[in-house]
Design goal:
Blueprint (H helix, E strand, L loop, with lengths): L1 H8 L6 E4 L6 H10 L4 E6 L2 H10 L6 E5 L5 H8 L4 E7 L4 H4 L26 H7 L2 H12 L4 H14 L5 H11 L2 H4 L7 H12 L5 H11 E11 L2 H15 L19 E3 L9 H6 L7 E7 L1
Helix pairs in contact: 7-8, 7-11, 8-9, 12-13
Length: 302
């Protein structure tokens, strides 16, 4: 959704833009080209591999700062850079293709790999830790809440039974357990049977949804009037947080209708630009099937 991202960001020469989820740097490179030569691009990613790949492959100019950190630390990052306000900010949540296609990272159910799933490889908690140490109730809760998996309790039970025989260390071990847990009739529809559980474990390992609403609020706070915030989500949990946070930030007076003059003093901080989420075109989905679930939302600072 590169063209739509650039359109919604509305960036130009001289703009200061933050890409909070650098990933493969496709969006970042296009933004950097648009805001050159007078602009500044700040690329943030918690994955050191993404930062290194961007430095090597994107050939950014000196008007670019690439920072290994979590976008949830946006306040600290911008303070340290001496930035006072920005013109645009992009969140492209979820996994990058680089992460998904690297078997050794353990994100994909398609490859034999260690159960890792850490975006930041310096952190301690891995998917193997979750699978082998969480209680059955905790596992069921994680898989249900973050994977929206109807068979969560059954999968958790099968995981606990399997790890009593031997530790679950690889993606293929886990995939086989999930397939055994889900009835054959249910496995024949809805995509790969392990998809939802792997999503849930990845979100739990990386604490992806914790503080997401606060990160959006922080981003809006740093925008100049007329600055834009753009978000791309890939599952309903992320999208719901973005939608609800945008809606709250766009809300003005909350006084009861019976009060003729506003007493709360509340004012809208953003104007929502996308009444409905923008979806990728059929042509883009055909060229990149992973884009199928993408939902883009955008807002402008008032």
């Amino acid at each position: 959704m590169l063209a739509e991202v650039l359109k919604q960001l509305n960036c130009r020469d001289g703009s200061i833009v933050v890409d909070c989820t650098l990933g493969g740097a496709g969006h970042a490179k296009a933004v950097a080209d648009l805001i050159a030569p007078g602009g500044l691009l700040i690329g943030i990613d918690v994955d050191e591999t993404a930062i290194e790949a961007a430095r090597e492959n994107a050939r950014f100019s000196q008007q670019t700062k690439l920072i290994k950190d979590n976008f949830k630390n946006l306040d600290k990052i911008l303070h340290n850079l001496g930035i006072h306000a920005i013109d645009g900010i992009l969140f492209d949540f979820g996994l990058s293709s680089t992460q998904l296609d690297a078997p050794e990272r353990g994100f994909s159910y398609r490859f034999e790999a260690p159960l890792d799933m850490r975006m930041d490889i310096s952190q301690k908690l891995t998917a193997a830790d979750v699978v082998n140490t969480y209680s059955e109730a905790e596992l069921a809760s994680v898989i249900k809440r973050y994977g929206e998996e109807r068979w969560a309790s059954r999968i958790a039970h099968f995981i606990v039974e399997a790890r009593e025989r031997e530790p679950i260390k690889t993606t293929t071990q886990l995939v086989d357990i999930i397939k055994d847990a889900i009835p054959a009739s249910a496995r024949r529809r809805g995509g790969h049977p392990a998809r939802r559980t792997f999503q849930a474990l990845r979100i739990e390992v990386n604490k992806e949804l914790e503080g997401l609403d606060r990160a959006i609020r922080d981003a809006v706070k740093w925008l100049k009037p007329g600055g834009r915030i753009v978000s791309i989500s890939y599952h309903s949990l992320e999208d719901r947080i973005v939608k609800d946070t945008f809606k709250e930030l766009a809300r003005g007076c909350i006084c009861p209708p019976s009060i003729p003059i506003c007493q709360c003093g509340r004012k809208s901080s953003i104007k929502i630009l996308t009444r409905r989420p923008i979806r990728p075109s059929p042509e883009e989905i055909e060229a990149n099937p992973r884009a199928d679930s993408a939902r883009l939302r955008a807002a402008e600072k008032i």
